[in-house]
């Protein structure tokens, strides 16, 4: 679908938009840029050429890689189905959950299980304090989708009220972390039970769901209501910046492991800033037409790109001792890895698009045959 935001607002109803293909140019640039940084970092961190200050933090602090998972959740929330259209007929929450589980959550759970089995079977290096013993990012994203669907089906609040509600939830969660020793529990508790073994991933869902719902609010405002991101985002960016400063003055340290209030604020602030910057450049250069073919392909296959990058990362780590490779060798491997992942995604996209095209051609051939040889029907009545 290649309609501009103005035509979307004035002439087109949301229900008629192809949710899988419609993206404003500035949003496509943001999503591809975000995933490109993530794909680059997950392998680069294994080489000595990668600055350690960009690697994930252990407890408190923020780095480039700490922002990756938050930005992916924000991106998913911004373009979530609920951000584009509301259902005309209300239905029960279990019907919502069943429908959504088959399309989004089911594959993510399977990917999470596959990664868990692969890591445990091969003895691949993993950081337990990142998500837990068994938990991983795929489980986090899957559970965020499930919780979002439950919230959406039970929601009676307006988008602004929902934004306020999750802001209050994050404040309560931060109070528990700071004043009720929940942070000490996450950092220091034993790994006895299944919950304790995966407490980082499970408790972190509070923060990640908040990021998702906040992003969903901004997605609705710009993509459904047609508000201009260039003028709509700056007040919120200033507000988030002020809140980040306030948490710093209050002595609340940022932590991705806790997914606490400062982390949520920083992720939202930086993502909105990037979105605003891309929207401003697109508006300045009048880039209202569709983005390039490569950007469009990558934008529509972000999860596949992430999966391919993870597979390549594992293979490269098994094939080489990355810590002993010099700077020039690391750069060469990273360049081949990044370019190769893009080529694989492009090839997968072409294979996926070829099948629907063949089906359409077969259908057209059947129609032409039917027109050339009409069936004669005799009515004996």
Mean pLDDT metric? 83
**Count of helical stretches:** 17
The total beta strand count reads: 0
- The oligomeric state is single chain
Element order: H for helix, E for strand: HHHHHHHHHHHHHHHHH
Largest sheet: none
Helix content estimate: over 70%
* Helix/strand structural class: mainly alpha
Strand content: under 5%
Q: What is the rounded Rg?
A: 23 Å
The global form is: globular
Outline of this structure?
With 381 residues, this protein is mostly helical.
What would you say this structure looks like, in words?
- It contains 17 helices and no strands.
- The longest helix is centred in the C-terminal third of the chain and has 46 residues, at 327-372.
- It is globular, with a radius of gyration of 23 Å.
- It is mainly alpha-helical.
């Amino acid at each position: 679908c290649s309609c501009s935001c103005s035509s979307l607002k004035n002439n087109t109803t949301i229900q008629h938009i192809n949710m899988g293909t419609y993206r404003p140019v500035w949003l496509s640039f943001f999503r591809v840029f975000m995933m490109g940084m993530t794909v680059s970092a997950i392998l680069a961190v294994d080489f000595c050429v990668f600055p350690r200050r960009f690697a994930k933090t252990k407890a408190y602090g923020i780095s480039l890689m700490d922002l990756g998972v938050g930005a992916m959740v924000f991106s998913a929330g911004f373009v979530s189905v609920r951000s584009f259209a509301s259902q005309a007929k209300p239905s029960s929450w279990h019907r919502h959950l069943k429908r959504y589980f088959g399309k989004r959550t089911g594959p993510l759970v399977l990917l999470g299980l596959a990664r868990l089995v692969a890591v445990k079977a091969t003895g691949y290096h993993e950081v337990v304090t990142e998500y837990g013993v068994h938990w991983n990012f795929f489980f986090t994203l899957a559970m965020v989708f499930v919780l979002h669907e439950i919230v959406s089906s039970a929601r009676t609040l307006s988008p602004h009220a929902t934004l306020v509600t999750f802001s209050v939830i994050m404040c309560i969660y931060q109070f528990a972390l700071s004043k009720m020793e929940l942070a000490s529990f996450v950092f220091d508790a034993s790994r006895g039970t299944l919950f304790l073994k995966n407490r980082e991933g499970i408790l972190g869902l509070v923060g990640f769901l908040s990021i998702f719902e906040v992003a969903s609010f901004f997605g609705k405002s710009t993509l459904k209501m047609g508000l201009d991101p260039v003028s709509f985002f700056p007040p919120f960016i200033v507000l988030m910046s002020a809140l980040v400063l306030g948490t710093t003055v209050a002595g609340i340290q940022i932590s991705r492991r806790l997914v606490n209030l400062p982390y949520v604020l920083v992720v939202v602030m930086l993502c909105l800033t990037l979105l605003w910057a891309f929207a401003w450049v697109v508006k300045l250069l009048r880039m209202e037409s569709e983005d390039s073919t490569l950007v469009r392909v990558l934008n529509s296959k972000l999860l596949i790109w992430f999966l391919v990058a993870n597979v390549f990362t594992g293979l490269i780590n098994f094939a080489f001792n990355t810590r002993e490779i010099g700077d020039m060798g690391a750069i060469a491997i990273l360049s081949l890895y990044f370019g190769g992942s893009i080529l694989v995604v492009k090839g997968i996209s072409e294979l996926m698009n070829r099948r629907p095209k063949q089906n359409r051609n077969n259908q057209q051939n059947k129609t032409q045959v039917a027109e050339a040889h009409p069936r004669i029907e005799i009515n004996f009545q």
